[in-house]
Design brief:
Radius of gyration: 25 Å
Shape: elongated
Structural class: mainly beta
Helix content: under 10%
CATH class of the largest domain: Mainly Beta
CATH superfamily of the largest domain: YVTN repeat-like/Quinoprotein amine dehydrogenase
Largest sheet: 9 strands, mixed
CATH architecture of the largest domain: 7 Propeller
Strand order of the largest sheet: 36-35-38-33-2-1-39-34-37
Length: 484
């Protein structure tokens, strides 16, 4: 029988998990250390540290932008903002009072990089004076969230008010005083709960706990028109919000959502929503981070079950399917890769063979959109190392309906040179499954097994560091073994 690995749907019962009409495609209860591709699953790379990337304290925010072809990467902790290069971290702002709950957010505006943490004045990095950041403007409010909408800097949760949006003059982020020719102003929401995010572009999106509004430029005395476009659903965990193009992904009071400015799509319903809720500890929601991996078309969000989180959900927004990975990170953020010469690498590592990152990695080429993250030791890096350990496990199934099945062979569809095949068996749905591992593989890629069960479940585990590029499912050989 040919078993094709279907979608990862841990919310579904383990019996006949997500079986299709043909009866040969089964959903997976485990799809870990991988991400979905069109006809199967691909390996996910391990963390690889970047040169001189030890921050020494817990990171709270990160960001990047490019100006005059030069990429700049910023990270911050509770008190400082740093720029990062292959030589290490350089402090450009000290004396901050940033909390994990509020976070530190970065927003590029023209030649500048703006930074805000809800308690200190908005800061500005000017590449013309790169040694230190300055205060953006005395009249600018404090803000939790920043975005650029049609040339305006828009501040969310402005001035400590959870319902206030405030904006600068158009084309002038230093002017926040209303009146005269200035188009600066503010708007206080009449309801909808706390503001939890602002997304910029041709129009603005304001996320609240229980609704989403669109900011449309009018140019009249009100400057902006605020229209409620989604009612009763909003972003309830601010750090779950991540945007690529016009699509924003976030966790709502009804599960994971994708919103393109017009259409709201539930992307976790009956797939991963209940699993995420079960694993989530609300005491750790401040430790969440979410990011877009542009190279693989992925939305990645860490699961708030520890500090720092130790695992993540991964959503391929092209294939619209989920997986998981053991990503232990206090912070993931969108960044740009930095150029590092071979001479610099040799000086840093002493021996190029000792590098933890491939010389072909985008992490070493400047200006490419990328994601960066810190590991549990607060070391900056990227997901560009050898393959993670990967595990695939399907649901309980009857290979021969109504009868025991004597299984003799499993042939995984993968180019991995070695794996461990495990069979879990039981004779009733309420019975406790017994698992047996098999590691011996024939030259034809077949694992000889000896199992006799009414219900069986197959797991294929590929060790960390193994070179492989796909997993599709497996062939199972079985004959009827009598009625149970």
């Amino acid at each position: 029988m040919r078993i094709i690995a279907g979608t990862y749907t841990p919310d579904q019962p383990p019996y006949l998990n997500a079986q299709d009409d043909r009866g040969t495609v089964y959903g997976l209860l485990t799809a870990d250390g991988c991400y979905k591709i069109r006809n199967g699953y691909a390996p996910f790379p391990q963390f690889a540290s970047l040169p001189n990337g030890s921050l020494g304290s817990a990171p709270i925010g990160g960001g990047a932008y490019r100006y005059t072809a030069l990429p700049y990467v910023f990270v911050g902790n509770a008190t400082n903002i740093y720029t990062y290069t292959a030589s290490g971290f350089t402090s450009v702002q000290s004396g901050l009072t940033t909390t994990a709950a509020n976070g530190l957010r970065f927003c590029p505006y023209g030649a500048y990089m703006l930074a805000t943490n809800a308690s200190d004045p908005i800061k500005k990095f000017d590449p013309g004076s790169p040694s230190a950041m300055t205060t953006l403007a005395a009249a600018a409010p404090t803000a939790r969230y920043l975005a650029v909408v049609r040339g305006f800097v828009v501040a969310g949760y402005a001035g400590g008010s959870p319902l206030r949006v405030q904006w600068s003059d158009t084309g002038n982020p230093a002017t926040w005083t209303t009146g005269g020719s200035s188009q600066a102003g503010q708007y206080d929401m009449p309801g909808g709960g706390d503001i939890t995010g602002v997304v910029g572009g041709e129009y603005g999106l304001v996320f609240q706990e229980a609704r989403i509004l669109r900011m449309t430029y009018t140019g009249d005395t009100s400057i902006w028109q605020f229209d409620e476009i989604v009612s009763d659903i909003g972003c309830t965990i601010p750090k779950s919000l991540a945007t690529v193009g016009k699509i924003s992904f976030f966790w709502s009071n009804r599960g994971f959502m994708a919103f393109d400015g017009a259409t709201l799509e539930p992307i976790g319903t009956e797939k991963v929503d209940r699993t995420f809720q079960t694993l989530m500890d609300r005491n750790y929601t401040d430790n969440i981070s979410a990011v877009i991996d542009p190279a693989r078309s992925l939305y990645i969000i860490t699961i708030p079950s520890a500090s720092p989180p130790t695992s993540a959900l991964i959503y391929n927004y092209v294939e619209k399917q989920w997986t998981t990975a053991p990503i232990a990170s206090p912070l993931m953020f969108s960044a740009l890769s930095l150029s590092i010469s071979l001479e610099s690498l040799d000086a840093i590592y002493g021996n190029l063979d000792a590098m933890t990152v491939s010389v072909d990695s985008t992490a070493l080429r400047g200006g490419f959109p990328a994601m960066m993250l810190f590991d549990s030791s607060n070391v900056l890096g990227s997901l560009s190392g050898p393959n993670m350990a990967a595990t695939f496990k399907d649901g309980l199934k009857e290979l021969i309906p109504g009868r025991r099945a004597r299984m003799t062979e499993i042939r995984p569809f993968t180019d991995a040179p070695a794996a461990t095949v495990s069979i879990s068996g039981a004779n009733t749905l309420s019975g406790t499954a017994t698992e047996t591992n098999y590691t011996g593989r024939t030259s034809a890629g077949v694992y000889k097994v000896r199992e006799n069960w009414n219900l069986s479940q197959t797991k294929v585990a590929i060790a960390a560091g193994t070179a492989w590029t796909y997993f599709l499912g497996y062939d199972a050989t079985a004959v009827g073994g009598g009625r149970p």
